[in-house]
Design goal:
The chain is 38% helix and 27% strand. With 340 residues, the protein is α+β, with helices and mostly antiparallel strands.
Length: 340
């Protein structure tokens, strides 16, 4: 009897786990709270996220992944082990685990993901590039000689790929995504209003009134933070037009990256993309007006996939179900695994 097959979207902001035959069984923030006095993990996921900016001096809430890759190996392993134990019991049989990684991952970064998954209790580890997993989860047929363009905008990275015959013909990965949008909002509120806000507040602003194209009606929002002048709590009001201007520079970086990928794409595949359109996945794709801006910039029909946040996790689960069929082109095994 074999252990479970697990697909993991190991995101900078969120971890999603898909178990073969069950679907998505876990969606938790990629946050770990650690007691600095003894290096003991005191909370993981949602509970740890609630502690960000609210912990005593000896407890720190950290995100062990930054820019789509592991920045703290030990905490990533602890976090993965905790999540995997929550969703499956592998006392007797260890699971096979497939994890998505950014398309331009280095050998060192790849090895870190592999080792973290093995440390978390995997029997065998497979790596799949995020845009390929996203395309599968979005329901695109990537097995045919037909070009599909996928833009996966997560927390740490934006991954762009033109996929044909189970592989990425052209790909790019930039470290401009949801986290950078949040950072721009934090800097703006500090610069204009002399008020310091936290990462979670910036995320709330982005979700509530964030946009990269004009809304039909201007939305307003009260933002609470700490005055840098008096040191006391202060509430200020911002609106969607201000936030739209703030998010323009990172948006331009994403548009330029998409443009660059299209410039490097063979003409026949470009023709396919014009016919099939561009598909957006990841939490960042939900930013108001993003599909309109990409369509205006490229002249190519652009749509947001159904349930874009879970596309990558669904894709890893579907890839596990067809492991034997897709192993040649789709599954990007770690170099360690190949050597064995």
């Amino acid at each position: 009897m074999a252990g479970s097959d697990i697909g993991i979207d190991l995101g900078t902001a969120t971890v999603l786990i898909n178990i073969k035959g069950k679907g998505i069984v876990l969606q938790e923030p990629s946050v770990v709270a650690v007691d600095k006095t003894n290096d003991r993990v005191v909370a993981t996921g949602t509970q740890a996220q609630k502690m960000i900016g609210r912990t005593p001096a000896d407890i720190v809430a950290v995100r062990p992944l930054r820019g789509g890759v592991i920045s703290n190996f030990d905490l990533t392993g602890e976090m993965l082990r905790y999540f995997i134990k929550r969703v499956c019991n592998y006392r007797l049989f260890k699971p096979r685990i497939m994890i998505c990684v950014p398309s331009m991952i280095t050998e060192v970064e790849e090895r870190a993901v592999y080792d973290a998954a093995m440390q978390a209790g995997a029997r065998k580890v497979y790596l799949v590039e995020e845009p390929i997993a996203a395309a599968i989860g979005a329901g695109l047929n990537i097995t045919e000689p037909n070009g599909n363009m996928i833009v996966d905008i997560g927390g740490g990275t934006t991954d762009i790929a033109v996929i044909s015959l189970k592989d990425a013909a052209v790909a790019a990965s930039i470290k401009v995504a949801g986290d950078v949008f949040n950072e721009m909002i934090v800097k703006f509120i500090r610069r204009k209003y002399n008020v310091l806000i936290g990462e979670r507040t910036a995320e709330d602003v982005k979700i509530a009134i964030g946009c990269v194209a004009p809304r039909e009606t201007k939305e307003q929002m009260n933002v609470k933070g700490r005055s840098l002048v008096t040191g006391l709590p202060k509430m200020v009001e911002t609106d969607s037009e201000e936030i739209r201007e703030v998010l323009e520079p990172p948006l331009r970086s994403i548009l330029d990256a998409i443009h660059s990928v299209l410039e490097r794409t063979p003409p026949e595949l470009v023709g396919d993309i014009v016919t099939n359109g561009i598909v957006l996945t990841g939490g960042g794709s939900l930013l108001y007006g993003l599909d309109k801006r990409i369509e205006a910039h490229t002249g190519i029909s652009t749509r947001v996939a159904d349930d874009p946040v879970t596309c990558v996790a669904r894709g890893t689960g579907l890839a596990l179900e067809h492991l034997n069929i897709l192993e040649d082109g789709l599954i990007h095994l770690s170099r360690l695994n190949r050597d064995r």
